[in-house]
Predict the structure.
Amino acid sequence: MRLLFAAFSVAVLVGSAMPVQAHHSFSAVYDGNKPVTLRGKVSKLGWSNPHAHIYVDVVNQKGETVTWEVESASATNLLRAGIRKEDFIGTEVIVKGFLAKDGTPTVNASSFTLVELKKEYTSDEATPGAR
Amino acid sequence: MKRMVILAGVCLALAVHAAAWAQTRPDFSGTWKFNQAKSSPNIAGNTPIVPFPSQLVVKQTPTELHVDGTSVRQQPTSAVYKLDGSKVTIKAPSGITESGEAKLEGTNLVITSRRSFTSPLGETIVDFKEIWTLNGNALTIEKTRTESESGDSATEKAVFDRM
């Protein structure tokens, strides 16, 4: 019984120390004063809830390719809008969103367009008031 | 005598012109609260492409327009525009450079501004144009966001109620 309790305690401690992809507030991570538009190819996809993460290879002004992490709506919401996991890989995408506060190539998407498929998704997570 | 009559005529004409100008010149002063129901639906998203403040506090003098904006998800903004259309520096959050100008065009107020900041893309420049129109106790702002690099542009309309 003691051993079981010890194992349980260790599991709780390890679990709480692991990084979690939480449903954070926009203003904690992103800067609403820094709007950006990205255009590039999707190289990887994190198809998850509460946010899907789209990784996009974008060529910057110096001609270097930088992989951006795009936080989008949940996979469930994207599916509801008729956008599937298979629609992303290798496709060209245009993303409009807001830059991360920490200056990394991370953006919160207001909308994105899958260019070849001509599918557009606009975030509709309505909350009272404007931003 | 003739000179006196001419002078009086000129003074009268100037007075009439000033009075007419004062009557048609809109005054945007007041505290304005965003009305979601009357505004473009796209503004209500989690991260709208064209963002608007939740509340505006405007003080207008004959020569200046003081605009303080507060938002749920953005840092407060504060700008003092000269109404003669001359360029002013806007107090922007850290890492952002912004300048703008405002001028009255008939019964509308037109504010144009340019915001620049560094991102992993390079130097990012975003232009905004706002057209303010008063209609009784409602203030309508039509705002266009244009990114210089991509030329990408979007326009939305927001309505604010006088508090």
Remarks:
- Chain B touches chain A through 41 residues (CB under 8 Å).
- Chain B has a mean pLDDT of 86.
- Residues 27-162 of chain B form a domain with the Lipocalin fold (CATH 2.40.128.20).
- The beta strands of chain B are 30-35, 55-60, 64-70, 77-82, 88-89, 97-105, 108-119, 122-135, 138-147, 153-162.
